[in-house]
Amino acid sequence: MCRAGLFQFAAQQGFSNGCVQSRALFWCKSGRGAFEVDGVRHSLEPHDLYVLPWNRRITYLPSADEPMYTAHVHIVPWYRPGAPWVANVPHEAGEPEFDSPDRRDVAWANLGGLVRLRAAVDEPLGRLVDYTVRWFLQSGRDEAEARALGVLLVRELARSAEGAVAPVARRPEELERLLVHVERGFHLAPRIEDLAAIIGRSRSHVLKMFRRHLGVSAKAHIIGRQLREARELLLSTTRPVSEVGKSVGLPDPYHFSKLFRRHVGLSPREFRARHGPFSAPPKPSQHSTTPPRLGN
């Protein structure tokens, strides 16, 4: 592991890197946008974690309304034993370490090319990426620890990639449409009647479909999605608790806190204090050049 950091994009703050020599983990913690790798465009939404290929040309395209907040970790798959470890990666031809004989790419099972995964902050991969970023920004950057973190990250990525391709039991097309609608609009607190209108069926039909295929009520599924997003925001941002509730579709602070405690076992403030990695935004990395580059 040779570089890591956090970056809050501003609206319309797009930029490019011409040739990045690393395998990078590019994780959207909140917000939205897109990016292009070698001319191919990919969407970026909360919880998306992309494994990016070696020697990539990349352009970042943040949303104008809700620009993404991202974490990035750069891994050099092979580093010559005994070679001096440099805690950085080149982003353009001609920069230090570009085409270095001490570094090269290798094949990773299930992780060739560009791979899209999903990572929640409170799951193993999300926690490991968060720890790696904090380690890089705040520690003395010991080479042995950097190598160990690289091994752990690759193994956790492989496990996540295996799970991503596991077969899923076939569900009705109507239900799939509703699940997509909830995923995109849970912050609007959709009602059961709204879901029924989307597929032109009755309220009872929607309720039965959720129970039969997901094992929960439609309302419980929506609330679960809202609270999962709330946990993400409490762990990955320093937004006030009341603002977190509003952003996930639960604007009443009392109702939000009551629901959160019922499902999580802690109040939102207690959850953040116990599990949140930052009590304040981390200091920017001191190794960045001027002007700074994200370089994923």
Provide an overview of this structure.
There is one protein chain. This protein is an alpha+beta fold and 296 residues long. The protein has two domains: 3-164, Regulatory protein AraC (Jelly Rolls), CATH 2.60.120.280; 173-275, Arc Repressor Mutant, subunit A (Orthogonal Bundle). The chain is built from nine helices and eleven strands. The protein has helices at 124-138, 143-164, 173-185, 192-199, 203-214, 218-236, 241-247, 253-264, 268-275; strands spanning 3-8, 16-20, 23-30, 33-37, 40-44, 48-52, 56-62, 69-75, 78-79, 103-104, 115-118. The protein starts with a strand and ends in a 21-residue tail after the last helix. The relative contact order is 0.15. Residues 279-296 have low confidence and may be disordered.
Question: Which labels suit this protein?
Answer:
296 residues, alpha+beta, Jelly Rolls, five-stranded antiparallel sheet, 39% helix, 19% strand, elongated, disordered C terminus
Into which percent range does the helicity of residues fall?
Answer: 25-40%
> So how many helices?
9
Q: What summary fits the major beta sheet? A: 5 strands, antiparallel
The share of residues in extended strands comes to 15-25%
Average predicted confidence as pLDDT: 86
Give the end-to-end Cα distance, rounded to a whole number of Å.
14 Å
How many beta strands in the DSSP annotation?
11
Named at the architecture level, the CATH assignment of the largest domain is: Sandwich
Number of domains: 2
Q: Shape, please? A: elongated
The level-1 CATH class of the largest domain: Mainly Beta
Structural class: alpha+beta
